[in-house]
Amino acid sequence: MRNKKVLLIVQAALIAAIYVVLTYFISAFNLASGAIQVRISEALTILPVFTPAAIPGLFIGCLLSNLLTGCMPLDVVFGSLATLIGACGTYALRKHKWLAPLPPIVANTVIVPFVLAYVYMAEGTIPFFMLTVGIGEVISCYVLGMILYKVLNNYRSVIFKNE
């Protein structure tokens, strides 16, 4: 029992660290935030299909990424909550491979545009931001996420022994 808790904590920490590294990498290309964003770290939101440790890992990773990349405080809060909601939804849909990536897409497409409009006073309308954020999330969560799913599913019993 104790080893399983340690394993889940280590998995969560590794997922958070990978999320931060990927966000830092993509922010070098100005794609981690703004009206047009393809945060490749969001591909990791498929991980709750494999382990519940991904839920806190993704939340903490997003929180740290938002803090470390200089996001405004309300963006840190609401952006991280969007990722948390998405991760919980993915876990809830973990038995449905093709539906599992949808919760983070929906959560970010609904929440992030309001952050862009009201926190950053970005030029554009909420529907425009929903379109641009939504497209970026589909690329990150669905396209890249499903590629990651395919690769990890082949090694599921090795990487995610506890499940």
UniProtKB/TrEMBL annotation:
The keyword ATP-binding does not apply. The chain crosses the membrane at residues 6-32, 44-68, 74-93, 105-122, 128-152. It holds the Pfam family QueT. InterPro entries: QueT (IPR010387). Coiled coil: none annotated. Keywords: Membrane, Transmembrane, Transmembrane helix. This is Queuosine transporter QueT. It comes from Roseburia intestinalis L1-82.
